[in-house]
From TrEMBL:
Protein name: KipI family sensor histidine kinase inhibitor
PANTHER family assigned to the protein according to its UniProt record, in alphabetical order: 5-OXOPROLINASE SUBUNIT B
Species per Swiss-Prot/TrEMBL record: Afipia massiliensis
Keyword Magnesium (UniProt): no
Entry-linked InterPro entries: CT_C_D, Cyclophilin-like_dom_sf, PxpB
Gene Ontology molecular functions: ATP binding; hydrolase activity
Keywords: ATP-binding, Hydrolase, Nucleotide-binding
Stored Pfam families: CT_C_D
Residue span, Carboxyltransferase domain: 5-205
Length: 240
């Protein structure tokens, strides 16, 4: 069953189409379907859209379209049946787990009374969905984490975490591209650049993509990191 959307004003040049209030792949598919519809319809006055887990933020030019008319148009588009997702891109991302690369791995294992190997197996055993990109450029929010290792965020966030951090927070996982503050638990690091201005495409992942992780040795990281610095994707695009 799909959620019924509602329109929320978001300042004088934006509105939000909200489909629900939870992390739910069904809701996220509705959001992305509306985002694609707005793009394909070239809706008058729309300047930019920002899809999230459960809503679509729409920036518009009020000199070209009014709030009421745009709301009506978006609600009509949102009522369309959500098409089946086809041609999903599936990324296989290398990760060095634990040690200096994932300083919270041991703590997460202790929190759930399992071994670090079990945490890695749980983390690599899921196929995740890129629900949205946000916070910093290329930061991929992932749904689909194994609930066995779901871990509340840290009480005291760190002011700095390194680029390429692979972490979990609550029921979410992520691929972090840039160095940034974080209250999530660091399991490992990847050499993959999800955001790299010198590369085409600049952004590697998009909402709706699928992601899996696989463990690599620390000795492999440096060579892959140099390849990524040259603009190589490093992540493997797996055929569906």
């Amino acid at each position: 069953m799909t959620a019924s959307p509602r329109i929320l004003p978001s300042g004088d040049t934006a509105l939000t189409v909200e489909f629900g209030r939870s992390i739910d792949p069904v809701i996220n598919r509705q959001v992305l379907a509306l985002d694609r519809s707005v793009a394909s319809e070239a809706v008058t006055g729309v300047l930019e859209t920002v899809p999230t887990y459960r809503s679509l933020l729409v920036h518009y030019d009020p000199l070209l379209v009014g709030y009421a008319a745009l709301s009506e148009k978006l609600l009509a588009l949102a009522q369309r049946p959500v098409p089946a997702e086809t041609g999903v891109r599936r990324w296989r991302v290398p990760v060095v787990y634990g040690g200096d690369y994932g300083i919270d791995l041991d703590d997460v294992a202790r929190a759930h009374n399992i071994s670090t190997s079990d945490v890695i197996a749980k983390h690599t055993g899921c196929e995740y969905r890129v629900a949205m990109i946000g916070f910093t450029p290329g930061f991929a929010y992932l749904s689909g984490l194994d609930p066995v290792i779901a871990t509340p965020r840290r009480e005291s966030p760190r002011t700095h975490t390194p680029p390429g951090t692979i972490s979990i927070g609550g029921v979410q996982a992520c691929v972090q591209c840039l160095a940034a503050p974080s209250g999530w638990h660091l399991l490992g690091r990847t050499p993959v650049r999800t955001f790299y201005p010198q590369r085409d495409p600049v952004f590697l992942m998009e909402p709706g993509d699928a992601v899996t992780f696989h463990a690599i040795a620390a000795s492999e990281f440096a060579a892959l990191d140099r390849a990524a610095e040259r603009g190589e994707t490093v992540a493997e695009l797996v055929a569906s």
